[in-house]
Amino acid sequence: MTIKVTPLSDALGAEVTGVDLRERLSDVDRKNMEDAFIKHLVLVVRDQELNPRQYMTATRLFGKPMRQYFSDMILEEQPEIVVIDSREAPLLPNGEPRLVGSGAWHSDHTNTLQPPKVTVLYAIVLPRKGGTTGFANMHMAYDALPEDEKVKVDQMRTVNTLGKVINQVSTADLEEFGKPCVHPLARTHPVTGKKAIYVGPVKVECIVGMGQDESRRYIRELQERVIQPDIIYRHYWKPGDLLMWDNRSVAHKAFRDYDHMEGRIMHRIILEGDVPV
């Protein structure tokens, strides 16, 4: 098996072809994928045909799966897999669906002491059009800050909980995952040493030393300034895509650009990370 890695944008993202994740990867191919992942932050492995067990086995090549808090979305036969089905989305008061991951640019599970290092999505069912996902290089976002603001951001810490993310979460999981934890607003990547803006706005109760409203306003304005088109890769899904991103370096957002009742079904696995520093 010979893999090929093709960049998808100048900012981040690469397509991987020549891989069948149902088969055992050679040490060389595995190392090439790991190196490509660190370099490009987002990898799209095309044309996969995986059942849940094979999907789980494939992701274990890159880390250990961790438990997710969407209790009502767990796949019974593989409990480390969450099924994200747009048709099952709860409705907001205005009647619009509350689609997972579509509220703001964010990193996953920032409400945990050791958030995932990698998130993996596998496309099961796609709408006829739309259903795209955006990914932003948050190293580039940090680098774009003025030097005096970098100093300020380096000192900031966010207090994170599940907050309002209570739909499809059991009482027990809400108790476990809802405990406040504090993370740096600018975290350092454990492999490359690069700094990245690191935040999940929905999970942030406040920035330490700031009020809640002031904190949320600052984070919103910060993201609006730094998440610009030149640091974004927008993924147009194809059947059989397995996509993985570095949750330590990348913010993502699912776009509401499709009819959610058509069905956009993804299987999601997250891999254990370390304590952000």
Our estimate of the beta-strand percent is 25-35%
CATH architecture term = 4-Layer Sandwich
Number of helical segments with 4 or more residues: 6
Calculate the terminal CA-CA distance, rounded to whole Å.
Answer: 38 Å
Strand order of the largest sheet: 1-2-3-14-6-16-5-4
Largest sheet: 8 strands, mixed
The structural domain count equals: 1
Q: Given this structure, which CATH class is correct?
A: Alpha Beta
Fourth-tier CATH superfamily name: Clavaminate synthase-like
| Series of H and E elements | EEHEHEEEEHHEHEEEEHEEEE
Write down the CATH topology: Double-stranded beta-helix
Q: Shape from CA axes? A: globular
Q: What radius of gyration results from the CA coordinates?
A: 18 Å
Describe this structure in words.
With 277 residues, the chain is α+β, with helices and mostly antiparallel strands. It has a single domain (4-271), classed as Clavaminate synthase-like (Double-stranded beta-helix, 4-Layer Sandwich), CATH 3.60.130.10. It is 21% helix and 27% strand. It contains 6 helices and 16 strands. An 8-stranded mixed sheet has the order 1-2-3-14-6-16-5-4. The protein has a 3-stranded antiparallel sheet with strand order 13-7-15. A 3-stranded antiparallel sheet has the order 9-8-12. Strand 4 and strand 5 form a beta hairpin. The protein is globular and about 50 Å long. The N and C termini lie far apart (38 Å). The model has no long low-confidence stretch (mean pLDDT 93).
